[in-house]
Structures are given as C-alpha cells and as structure tokens.
Amino acid sequence: MIGYVTLGTNNLPRAAAFYDALLATIGAKRVMEFDRGVAWSAGGNQPMLGVMKPFDGKPATVGNGVMVALAVPSRELVDAVHRKALELGGSDEGTPGPRGDGFYAGYFRDPDGNKLNAHCMG
To answer: E strands within the chain?
Structure first.
C-alpha cells in the first residue's frame, strides 16, 4: 500500500551519505536523484524512502509522532541496521529487542532528527 515516504533534511549531502550507507545494509540503492532530494528502494515494486529539502523553501523540521519503519527479514538485520545508524551519527531511540508478542525492533534517529526503526516479525 505504501509507495514512498519522504523525510525532510536541511543538509542533503549529509543525509544522502547517511542513507546510502544505512540502506545498503538492507540491499537498497538510490533509484531517484534530483536537486532537492534522493530516494532509495530495495528494487522491484518495493516502497521507496526519500530525503529532500522542503518544497516551500522553509527549514525541514522533525514531525512529532512521525516514524518510518524499515521491515527486514531477521533479528540479526534489525541489530545490524540499528548499529549502523549509530555508527553513522544517528542517535538511539530504543535498543533492539522484543516489543510485544512476535515483534522485534530497534529505534533510532537520523542526523536530522527523523525517527526510524528497523523491525521484523517473529
């Protein structure tokens, strides 16, 4: 159902470098690039994640309560994505671990303050 999600940035080169390295962990690559933004996908008909400078020219801000969830196939990959985000300058928002019955997730913020998680079921 979701086609793509975009996150705002005030520093496109920094954000692009963060997501190039982070999303490579789950096999995603750049699929779109233009003056205001970059988007990645794991291929096929998979949803995209993009970062961009806001269209209205105003500074990007973090949406309170907004979070992007990256689905991955294993707990080990959840751990790897969370670890990579912190290595790349992201901040911890919740160490990887079980959250309820059959749900495993690790939460982090990117260098612009946008909240994400990596998660798997089972």
So the answer is: 4-8, 29-34, 37-41, 48-52, 67-71, 91-98, 103-109, 115-121
CATH of the domain at 31: 3.10.180.10
Contact of 68 with 5, CB cutoff 8 Å: yes
Q: Given its phi and psi angles, is residue 44 left (phi above 0), alpha (psi -120 to 50 degrees) or beta?
A: left
Would you place residue 39 in the very low, low, confident or very high pLDDT band (cuts 50, 70, 90)?
very high
Residue 98 confidence (pLDDT) above 80: yes
Give the residue numbers spanning the domain of 102. Answer: 4-121
CA dist list (Å): 78 to 34, 72, 98:
30, 7, 11
Distance, CA of 55 to chain centre: 20
DSSP state of 56: T
> Which tokens belong to 85?
């985000």
